[in-house]
Amino acid sequence: MISPQPTASAAHEASATPAWWRDAVVYQVYPRSFADSNGDGMGDLPGITARLPYIASLGVDAIWLSPFYPSPQHDGGYDVSDYTDVDPRFGSLADADALIARAHELGLKVIVDIVPNHSSSEHELFQAALAAGPGSPERDMYVFAEGKGEHGELPPNNWTSIFHGEAWTRITEPDGTPGQWYLHLFDTTQPDWNWENPAVHELFERVLRFWLDRGADGFRVDVAHGMVKPEGLPDAQVNSEGLIDIPEGEVPIYFDNDGVVDIYRQWRPILDSYEGDRMMVLEAWIPEHRLPQYIGQDRAHQSFNFGFLQARWGVETMRRAIEKPLALADAVDSPTTWVLSNHDVIRHATRYGFAPDHRFGEGLSREEVPDAELGLLRARAASLLMLALPGSAYLYQGEELGLPEVADIPDELREDPAHHRAGVPGRDGCRVPLPWQQDAPAFGFSPTGESWLPQPEVFGQLAADAQEGVEGSTLELYRTAIRLRSELGLGRPTAPLAFLEDLPAPVLGLTRGDVVVLVNTGEEDLELPTHLREAELLVASAPSAPGTLPADTTLWLRRR
Ligand code: GLC
Description:
The protein is of the alpha/beta class and 560 residues long. Helices cover 25% and strands 14% of the residues. It contains 14 helices and 19 strands. The chain starts with a strand and ends with a strand. The chain binds alpha-D-glucopyranose.
């Protein structure tokens, strides 16, 4: 039996040409690791521009560029020291213009990353704040506070950093005495801006306009639930172990505070004042029931839905991770987003290589060995499911090659600040430079064979040129699925989504109009239900004989 599932308002879609982002497939480029044109072992903007035809050949609609701004690179560029320039490691502003222009020629929109919660400690305004002393307007640009204790020797409150350790660092005042403390929810080198200060609002409005004027089609907003801190900077509740207590389904005290949404209310008219449906997508790791607050005609366009990424392999978990966001999207009349991998999480080809109840830490340790074959099989099945869903889909560079997480990175080469602060493996394993050519030095990442992180052997067989035109390769699977998604309008809400209820237990099934999507999450190959035996096979995530639904496989069928 079929249970109808609401999707975002078809009436709205019918009224005008839908904005491009509503059903876009967006490809995330992590500039350090995409393609290196000058041979220094670090990816760069000209490298990306040269490879844009490859991205366009996937059939995607847009790219999202992780930060390429000047930065000491203590957090992979998410520590920005100048929001309106390009880091010389990555090129120049002229290179950014050339990239945007070439992308537009190829029909690709460009989303840039904006990091408004914190800057780098090397930002000139933070340096000015340090130099100007307590109570100055310069210091008021960031969150400074007096310490507790007799001599101010204790931090202003008990907050801890997302990257471990204290969220406060004490400075030395210009006169040489121990002084105030500054807040950094992330690394010590990432001081938080003070969003109580109107000058911070003005600064970021100028930044938005700077990139909109240069042709950016949208923004991915980093730590979009941060920025506004609770009044008086109160202590967080701690549990019996002295750790900050975060009740299930909630966020730490310094996230998702009243007032954050007002920032998007201020930004929206700026974006709307430009032609061409400029958009913003929020990176907000908050409980999904909170997401609707952030989305709407007068605030952000959309937000990442991380529930799908976090869902364990299985019918109930995955179905719930689809149903819930669709219902929420309907409520705010903005299609949901789908994402399985990005530069902060263990790649999904590796995540799925563990038992569904595996408890992951921060990054993959050498001791955690996945079943790589199973991981890739399920990753392909999950991606094919994702690409059949209404809304926008965000892909992370290299997932179209089936790249695994790399666990075997020497500790001294790891760059993730969480690794340095707490010894966890961290996120470098998903940031290893891409393999382009099977038989070239650094697998074609760089002309000199340099690579800022070493690439594992297995990247050779997964290189783009080894998969190009090869039937059944992960690269060709993505191309086929993205093409069909577009031809069949699967990203649009117009093909209603309904779950199929009369399937064998391990099968998740849904229909989008006359397209039927089946995911066999079980370990046994199954026969197709009788009423689907005559259906046309559109695409399969793994080889499947007629009439069968192999284990760990997704099929798209069309009812005749
Ligand atoms: C976001 C980014 C992540 C970065 C953090 C601090 O979560 O995605 O890479 O470390 O913000 O900027």
